[in-house]
């Protein structure tokens, strides 16, 4: 916020670039294009491993950069359900569960999407697949989670 405020004071002499999918053209398109490798590689890897596309693709949508990068590869697939997940209290449980079960410490932002998948997966038919986008490493969030959970 502070950096954006400084930019607004003198937009003629400063350039403000942000990783989120916001701002004037061409910033949102640039972020989409730079992050689109996430979706392309995920799509290719999922097809190679399972022989078909996922039924659901989910990502956290705080700033939108990882979500637009992931979703862009699936926009033309009418049977792939794209789910953008906003923050929920349940992300701490998802953070711990993914860390314990898979050995992957997700960023808290990603844990929101993991929480959605954990909540929805038991309600889906067994032949349905969910692809969860993990947007970052959670080592930066580990101290915060430990403090919040009293660990």
Q: What's the helical proportion of residues?
A: 40-55%
Strand order in space, largest sheet: 2-1-3
Quaternary assembly: single chain
Instruction: Please give the largest β-sheet.
Output: 3 strands, parallel
Protein architecture, described:
With 151 residues, this protein is mostly helical. The chain is 48% helix and 9% strand. Strands 2-1-3 form a three-stranded parallel β-sheet. Helix 2 (27-50) packs across helix 3 (65-71) and helix 4 (91-102) packs across helix 5. The longest helix has 24 residues, at 27-50. The model has no long low-confidence stretch (mean pLDDT 90).
Comma- or semicolon-separated keywords:
three-stranded parallel beta sheet, 151 residues, flat, mainly alpha
Describe, in short, the structure shown.
The chain is mainly alpha-helical. 48% of the residues lie in helices and 9% in strands. The protein starts with a helix and ends with a helix.
Topology, please?
Blueprint: H1 2-9, H2 27-50, E1 56-60, H3 65-71, E2 81-85, H4 91-102, H5 108-120, E3 130-132, H6 142-149
Parallel strand pairs: 1-2, 1-3
